[in-house]
C-alpha cells in the first residue's frame, strides 16, 4: 500500500505487531457501507463515472454477501479491514478497485467505521438494558406489597417495599440508557472526507455521504475528525456506570441470597455448587458480574491513558482504542445476557423479609412522628423514642409489643392508637410523598418507568444506510 517510498519489507514480528485485522474485522459491515457511500459520492460528483461507481458498489456488495455467508475468509496478510476490503475488491474488479480510495484516507475511514459500529452496538445494548428494566419492573409489580427493611450503612433503617427497592434500579438503568443515547447523539457526525488530516482538493460532497450513512451532520474540522476519540471515552464512561449499577445490584443479590438474609432464592440455572461442601449454592453469576466491573473500568482508564498525551492528528497509538471499546461492549452485553434471566427467575421470600422488618426498630421514626403530631418538638420526640428503644432492648422486646404503661411513663401524650400508627404497613402506606415508598408514589414511579421505556422505543430506530 505504501510502495514507492519503501524498498525493504516490514519485519514479520513488526508486521504482526502492527496489524489490527484480528480485531477490526468486526467492523466489516460498516467499512463496506462507508465505502459504498464514498463510491456513490465519487460518482455523483463526477470524480468517477457513474459506471465506475456502480461497478465498485456491486463489487462491494458481493464482498459483503460472501463475508456474511462465510464464503469469504479474512486474509491475515492484510494489515486491517480497510486493506482487506480494498484488496479483495481489486482482485475481483481489477484496477478500478484502486480508484475507491480517491479523496479519503484510512484515518477518516477508521474514524467513520468506528462511529458507525459503536452506533449499531449501542443500539443493541440499549435493547438489552430495556429488557433488564422490564424484568426488574415485573418483579416489582409482582411484589408491590412485600415489606422489607430499608438500609443505611447496611443497618436496618426504615420499612420500605421490595418493589420500591427494585424500582431504584429501574431508575439507574434508565439513566444509563439516557447517557448512551446522549453519547451517540454527539458521536453521530461523519468524519468521512476529512482524509488524512487536511481535507482534499477533490470536489467531494461530505454532506451527501453523511446523509447516506444516517449521520446528523459532519465533523466540522478535519483534524478533529480524524483525531477525536471523545466518543469512545463517553461510551466507555457510560458502560462503566452500567457496570457500577449491575455490580451494586449483584452485591445485593449476593447478600439477599445468603442464609444471613435469605430474602430471595436464585434459580439453580444461575448458581453453582461446591466441589467439597455439598450444601452450598453459590451466586456465581452475580459475583462474576460484580468482578467484571473492574474489567470495564480498566478499558475506560486504558483509553484515557492512551489519549492523554497524543499530539494532533492521527497517531498509531489510537489503534488501541478498538480492543478496549470492543471488550467493554462485549463484557456489558454478556453480563446483561446472564443478569436479566437471573432476575426474571429470582424467587423473593416475603416471609423472611417480613421477619427481618419486624426487628431493628425500623418504625422508630414513625413513633417520633406520632409525638410530633401530638405537639412535641421533633428533637424532644426523638430523645423520648431513643429512650424507649433502649428500654425495649433491656426487656428483650420491640416497640410494637412494649406495654402502653411504658409509653405513658415516657410521655403522657402516648395513647392506644400509637400501635396502629407504628405498624409496618401503616409506616409504608403513609409515605406517599413524591418518590416515597407508599402505594400512590409506587404507582407514579411505575408509570414513569413505563413512559420512559415507551419513549426510548420511539427513539430506538438506528440510522441506516439509504443507498
Describe this structure in words.
The strands form three sheets. Strands 1-2 form a two-stranded antiparallel ribbon. The chain starts with 11 loop residues before the first helix and ends in an 8-residue tail after the last helix. It is mainly alpha-helical and 467 residues long. It contains 19 helices and six strands. The protein folds into three domains: 12-102, Fumarase C, Chain B, domain 1, CATH 1.10.275; 107-143 and 158-356, Fumarase/aspartase (Central domain) (Fumarase C, Chain A, domain 2), CATH 1.20.200.10; 360-440, Fumarase/aspartase (C-terminal domain) (Ribonucleotide Reductase Protein R1, domain 1), CATH 1.10.40.30. The longest helix has 37 residues, at 106-142. The model has no long low-confidence stretch (mean pLDDT 95).
Oligomer: single chain
What is the CATH first-level class name of the largest domain?
Mainly Alpha
Strand content: under 5%
For CATH, the homologous superfamily of the largest domain is named as: Fumarase/aspartase (Central domain)
**Stretches with pLDDT under 50, minimum 5 residues:** none
Just name the CATH architecture of the largest domain: Up-down Bundle
Question: Overall pLDDT, averaged?
Answer: 95
How many individual β-strands? 6
- Secondary structure class reads mainly alpha
Coarse morphology: elongated
- Overall domain count: 3
Instruction: Report the major sheet.
Output: 2 strands, antiparallel
The share of residues in helices is: 55-70%
Q: What strand line-up does the widest sheet have?
A: 1-2
What's the helix-strand series? HHHHHHEEHEHEHHEHHEHHHHHHH
- Could you tell me the radius of gyration in angstroms? 30 Å
Count of discrete alpha- or pi-helical segments spanning 4 or more residues? 19
Task: Predict the CATH topology of the largest domain.
Answer: Fumarase C, Chain A, domain 2
> Span between N and C termini?
29 Å
Amino acid at each position: 500500500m505504501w510502495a514507492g517510498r519503501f524498498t525493504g519489507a516490514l519485519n514479520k514480528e513488526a508486521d504482526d505487531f502492527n496489524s489490527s485485522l484480528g480485531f477490526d474485522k468486526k467492523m466489516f459491515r460498516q467499512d463496506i457501507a462507508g465505502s459504498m457511500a464514498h463510491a456513490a459520492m465519487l460518482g455523483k460528483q463526477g470524480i468517477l463515472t457513474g459506471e465506475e461507481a456502480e461497478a465498485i458498489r456491486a463489487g462491494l456488495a458481493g464482498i459483503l454477501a460472501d463475508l456474511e455467508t462465510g464464503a469469504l475468509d479474512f486474509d491475515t496478510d492484510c494489515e486491517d479491514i480497510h486493506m482487506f476490503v480494498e484488496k479483495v475488491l481489486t482482485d475481483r474488479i481489477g484496477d478500478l478497485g484502486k480508484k475507491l480510495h480517491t479523496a479519503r484516507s484510512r484515518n477518516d475511514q477508521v474514524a467513520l467505521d468506528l462511529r458507525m459500529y459503536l452506533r449499531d452496538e449501542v443500539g443493541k445494548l440499549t435493547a438489552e438494558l430495556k429488557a433488564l428494566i422490564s424484568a426488574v419492573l415485573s418483579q416489582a409489580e409482582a411484589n408491590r406489597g412485600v415489606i422489607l427493611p430499608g438500609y443505611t450503612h447496611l443497618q436496618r433503617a426504615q420499612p420500605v417495599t421490595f418493589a420500591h427497592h427494585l424500582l431504584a434500579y429501574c431508575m439507574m438503568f434508565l439513566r444509563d440508557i439516557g447517557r448512551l443515547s446522549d453519547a451517540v447523539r454527539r458521536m453521530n457526525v461523519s468524519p468521512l472526507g476529512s482524509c488524512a488530516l487536511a481535507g482534499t482538493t477533490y470536489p467531494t460532497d461530505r454532506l451527501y455521504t453523511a446523509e447516506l450513512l444516517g449521520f446528523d451532520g459532519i465533523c466540522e474540522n478535519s483534524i478533529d475528525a480524524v483525531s477525536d476519540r471523545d466518543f469512545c471515552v463517553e461510551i466507555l464512561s457510560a458502560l462503566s456506570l452500567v457496570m457500577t449499577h449491575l455490580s451494586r445490584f449483584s452485591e445485593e443479590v449476593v447478600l439477599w441470597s445468603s442464609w444471613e438474609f435469605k430474602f430471595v432464592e436464585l434459580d439453580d440455572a444461575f448458581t453453582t455448587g461446591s466441589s467439597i461442601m455439598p450444601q452450598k449454592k453459590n451466586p456465581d453469576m452475580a459475583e462474576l458480574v460484580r468482578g467484571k466491573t473492574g474489567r470495564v473500568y480498566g478499558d475506560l482508564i486504558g483509553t484515557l491513558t492512551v489519549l492523554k498525551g497524543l499530539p494532533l492528528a492521527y497517531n498509531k497509538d489510537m489503534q488501541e482504542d478498538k480492543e478496549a471499546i470492543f471488550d467493554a461492549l462485549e463484557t456489558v452485553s454478556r453480563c446483561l445476557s446472564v443478569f436479566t434471566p437471573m432476575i426474571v427467575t429470582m424467587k423473593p421470600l416475603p416471609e423472611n423479609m417480613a421477619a427481618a422488618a419486624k426487628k431493628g426498630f425500623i418504625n422508630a421514626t414513625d413513633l417520633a412522628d406520632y409525638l410530633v403530631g401530638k405537639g412535641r418538638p421533633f428533637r424532644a420526640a426523638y430523645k423520648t423514642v431513643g429512650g424507649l428503644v433502649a428500654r425495649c432492648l433491656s426487656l428483650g422486646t420491640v416497640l410494637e409489643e412494649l406495654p402502653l404503661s411504658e409509653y405513658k411513663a415516657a410521655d403522657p401524650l402516648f395513647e392506644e392508637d400509637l400501635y396502629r400508627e407504628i405498624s409496618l404497613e401503616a409506616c409504608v402506606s403513609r409515605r406517599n410523598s413524591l418518590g416515597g415508598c407508599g402505594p400512590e408514589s409506587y404507582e407514579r414511579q411505575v408509570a414513569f418507568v413505563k413512559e420512559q421505556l415507551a419513549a426510548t422505543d420511539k427513539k430506538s430506530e438506528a440510522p441506516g444506510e439509504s443507498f
